[in-house]
């Protein structure tokens, strides 16, 4: 064995509804060099051992969020998680929980995107736009800075038990996106958005268990955003 590599076992979730209605795990052995990520390994397995293995990936830079999956029991981005940091020599890879599986590690995110659409994730203004720009102070930008950095990978929503049992729940990613615009000083639809999230399938379905924050690969704090939205909703109802 090359001293710069170590042999790892990859236990990967497999599901192909065209071949069998039952899911299974397939096991692969792979020499892993220092610095290789889980995505590097999946691509190596696909290239040299099983070309039918299906998963999403794109940017390889932890920006697009497409390679989010469950790795050794925790949601993360396969493209930035190095295998050597996982501990042990067995890596178990599953699709994101809570979403229907299309094939192998590819999940159906239609419900996830529908939830995002429900909170109007775009700038809304009735006032005319200025000729050049809508200025923000550093403090105004700082308030939404964390939420702006969400890459929509779905890890937080997938980790939420309230979403697992009620897919009508907006869930953390959509509520974080609502926060991003409700507290944007340039936006003029605060009241409308608060009404959209202020119900039993919105803010008040959150049970504050912090799974979402533990799962976020960008270290964002959707739970804090939800708490801030609850305060704003209560202020509006007075």
Mean pLDDT: 95
Per CATH, the architecture of the largest domain is Orthogonal Bundle
CATH topology (level 3) name of the largest domain: Fumarate Reductase Iron-sulfur Protein, Chain B, domain 2
Instruction: Give the overall shape, derived from the CA principal axes.
Output: elongated
Using only CA atoms, what is the Rg? 20 Å
Describe the structure.
The protein has 9 helices and 7 strands; from the N terminus they run ββαβββββαααααααα. It is α+β, with helices and mostly antiparallel strands. It folds into 2 domains: 5-107, Beta-grasp domain (Ubiquitin-like (UB roll)), CATH 3.10.20.30; 110-237, Fumarate Reductase Iron-sulfur Protein, Chain B, domain 2, CATH 1.10.1060.10. The relative contact order is 0.13.
What topology emerges from the helices and strands here?
Layout: E1 5-14, E2 24-33, H1 38-48, E3 68-71, E4 74-77, E5 90-94, E6 101-103, E7 106-107, H2 110-118, H3 138-148, H4 155-158, H5 161-164, H6 171-182, H7 190-197, H8 211-215, H9 222-237
Parallel strand pairs: 1-5
Antiparallel strand pairs: 1-2, 3-4, 3-5, 6-7
Helix pairs in contact: 2-6, 3-6, 6-7, 6-9
Quick summary of this structure?
The protein is of the alpha+beta class. 34% of the residues lie in helices and 16% in strands.
Please give a handful of descriptors for the protein shown.
9 helices, alpha+beta, two-stranded antiparallel sheet, Fumarate Reductase Iron-sulfur Protein, Chain B, domain 2, Ubiquitin-like (UB roll), single chain, about 240 residues
């Amino acid at each position: 064995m090359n001293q710069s590599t170590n042999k790892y076992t990859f236990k990967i979730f497999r599901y192909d509804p065209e071949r069998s209605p039952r899911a299974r795990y397939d096991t692969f052995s792979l020499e892993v060099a220092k610095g290789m990520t889980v995505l590097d390994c999946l691509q190596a397995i696909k290239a040299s051992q099983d070309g039918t293995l299906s998963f999403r990936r794109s940017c390889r830079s932890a920006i697009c969020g497409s390679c989010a999956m469950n790795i050794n029991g925790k949601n993360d981005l396969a493209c930035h998680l190095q295998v050597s940091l996982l501990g042990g020599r067995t890596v178990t890879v599953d699709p994101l929980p809570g979403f229907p599986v299309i094939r192998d590690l590819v999940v159906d995110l239609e419900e996830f995107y529908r939830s995002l659409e429900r909170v109007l994730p775009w700038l809304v203004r009735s006032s005319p736009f200025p000729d050049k720009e809508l200025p923000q102070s550093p403090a105004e930008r700082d308030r939404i800075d964390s939420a702006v950095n969400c890459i929509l990978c779905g890890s937080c929503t997938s980790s939420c038990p309230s979403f697992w049992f009620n897919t009508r729940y907006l869930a953390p990613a959509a509520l974080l996106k609502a926060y991003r615009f409700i507290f944007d000083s340039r936006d003029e639809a605060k009241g409308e958005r608060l009404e959209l999230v202020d119900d039993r399938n919105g803010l008040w379905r959150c049970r504050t268990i912090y799974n979402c924050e533990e799962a976020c690969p960008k270290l964002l704090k959707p739970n804090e955003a939800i708490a801030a939205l609850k305060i704003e909703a209560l202020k509006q109802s007075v």
